[in-house]
Amino acid sequence: MKTPPLLEVQNLHKSYNNVEVLGGVDFTVQRGQVKALLGPSGSGKSTILRMISLLEPCDSGTILLDGEQIGVIGGRVDVRPAPERILARQRTAIGMVFQKFNLFPHLDATRNVMSGLTTVLKVPKKEAREQALEMLDRVGLAARAHAYPSELSGGQQQRVAIARALVMKPKLMLFDEPTSALDPELVREVLDVMEKLASDGMTMVVVTHEMRFARSVASEVALFDSGQIVEQAPPDRFFDAPEHERTRRFLAHMH
Amino acid sequence: MEFDSTIFFDQLLSEAYVRGALLSLGLAVASQAGAVVIGFGLALGKSSKFAAVRSVCTGYIWFFRAIPALLLLLLMWNGLPQLSPVFQREWYSPFLAAFIGLALAEGAFMAEIIRSALMRVDDGQQLAARALGMTRTQVLFKVVLPQATRVALPPTGNEFIGMVKYTSLASVISLQELLTTAQMGVAVTFRYAEYYAAATVYYLVIVSVLMLLQNRIERRFTWTSTPTKRRFPALSRPQTPEKVPA
Description:
The complex is a heterodimer of chains A (255) and B (246). Chain A has 255 residues and is of the alpha/beta class. Chain A has nine helices and twelve strands. Chain A has two domains: 7-93 and 171-254, P-loop containing nucleotide triphosphate hydrolases (Rossmann fold), CATH 3.40.50; 104-169, no CATH class. Chain A has helices at residues 45-52, 84-91, 109-120, 125-138, 154-166, 184-199, 211-217, 235-240, 245-254, and strands at residues 7-16, 19-29, 34-38, 60-65, 68-69, 72-73, 80-81, 94-97, 172-176, 203-207, 220-225, 228-233. In chain A, β11 (220-225) and β12 (228-233) form a beta hairpin. The longest helix of chain A has 16 residues, at 184-199. Chain B has a single domain (5-225), classed as MetI-like (MetI-like fold), CATH 1.10.3720.10. The longest helix of chain B is centred in the first third of the chain and has 32 residues, at 15-46. Chain B: Residues 21-213 form the ABC transmembrane type-1 domain. Chain B: It is a multi-pass membrane protein.
């Protein structure tokens, strides 16, 4: 029996004030794959992460995680948007990392990482603390476990944010331009963590402008433009022999 | 007539003044606490998705900001019992009337303070919290409120000190707080300077203690591993790397 793809997005539409941001997007991500989404700003690539992470509802289309439709309740006939309570539970299976880290400034690194465990999963404090410290160690920040976000560099903050998402043991990790807000010399440490994560077999969708990262880590690269996927291909073909003129123009700009 | 320090110190250390001061402080604490609760409810109500809830809250704030606190206390103590016999009973004390009146009035002001504090919390905070799977209520109490509290603390401290002084208005409804204590002494002895000076000292002491307390609480909200006093960013030398590069 064939296992379903871990993530399957079908015909996703989204408009804001009658302006179409996503115009029927389809793509799949297989288990353990890393999908890099490229594209000019305003092309809808960040919007699609908001839809997949269930932070915003889509207008139409379906999102299947591990073969099950998320974001909705009901059977095949009467499908309705799920209430916030259900969405909150479904979100725990999806880790999200933001461009601006969004760490909780009133909690130190450890308690940032613990927050989802204790508040959402109701893990006892002591156990949550152990898991959080373990996770901080994994992103190389064991020594900074008691630092507050304001005492960490951007790169360190983003690594804490990754740990905070990872500790929930998500099936899927989403990254929304995780290095765009960083000083150039801090980008590498975050990409290193992400690369390690990918080689450990985590399924990831990464919106990024880091071409080298996309080429070396992604299993498949997709180009977004005007709310649609223009081209998607394995990185070798995408970068070296793109089929579409739009892709060639985009790549010419980036290099 | 010279200032008679014996009378002054006698009164300063008298039981009546201590009791008056405690009553003033107690009323201020209770009323301010009530106002924070009312203000929080109003602040949430003003951002409700239901238009009716929003207009009720706006109406409340409009009404209680407009009425002088003194008039409100007179209404509470003299007006209400005329309207309903419930308020003629023994349980309806001047303290209770003053507490309700001051909390209602101050609630309208706290609402604006709390609302603006809630709005100051970065939108990314609720996104990150929801992405972790927190419900709306959890987001509010675990993530948004602690951060809003920090913003609301200085203006709330200000309001609290104002409240201590507003409790003196309760002298018109025969509550034996600090000012009433002084007034009653004056009425018999006509030693205005000594009796009022004693009351002044108590107000100074109460407000000083509150300022110290506020300072300590604000220090707990610095969110660094070594608590230090928060300064204006422009006045302090940068110690840590910039939080979020633009």
